[in-house]
User: Fold Leucine-rich repeat-containing protein 59 from Aphis glycines.
Amino acid sequence: MTVVNIKDRVKNNKLNLSGLNLTEIPTKEIAPLKVSHLDLSNNKITSTDNVFSSLPSLVKLDLSNNQIKSVAGDIGSLQKLAYLSLANNKIKDLPKGLSKLKQLKHLNLSNNPLKPELIEAVGPSQNNAQCQSAAANAIQYLKGDTKKQDDKQNKKKDKKNSKASPNGVQNDKSKNKTKTKKKPAGFVSKVFGFFGMLISYTLLFTVLMGLSLYALSYYDKKAYGNVKAKLLPIWGSVTSNLDPKVASKVNYYLLQAGTSFDNVVHISIEASIKSYNWVKTNPTVQQYAKNVQDSWKSFWDSVFKKTKST
Assistant:
């Protein structure tokens, strides 16, 4: 179809042929003009065959609101094309030639009966941001499903590694390289952690001793009385060696707790529980507590070995 006065419609290398009820693209008349912007929207164009190779200078092409069912494969010849609108057509698929458009930044495919896998790959293209992502996604999709290719390559590598390594165990050298080294704790945190651990373990030992005595009071009251009679004088001698002010405070708290040894045990249990909760929330203390636990274990092992040998 011949369009009258096409030259008169060119302004600044831009040609507007929108809304002229064109049924085909007048390639012969447009090609000599070497326009960079071509608007063919709102027409009745059904085919794009043998068009794009004659218009290599196009930077922007608008073919929206037509009746195009398929895009010609020679669209890959538009190496300068940055903007392409194919909205409101009857397009189901895209040609692989579109993947050659390295300058394509904007692609509008909205309101087309695209096949499901293409919709999933490209996504919606309604606004400017979505059109930009659609361009990149379409090119990637047409080049091939890179994710599937990567998965296949990874599976091949895994098979090779499993064959190369004994018992199918893979080497994780790359993973070990990415592991970050823990920074050593500072001197203050070490001292704080050590004393915190020491206090918590002392209280824990007191709790265990109190629990054993408390259990003994139920099963053997006579033995419990003997132990209690021996421990109380020791406690008295310990407090007598303390500073008078400290000893008075200790004895005051013991009196507040009650004269019963059972109440003192209960208070020590509550204090140790609080100390345990504090240790549990402090990673530094936990680390040093583990170190002390290991040292105590090795110490007692050596003691018991000596006693057995003697």
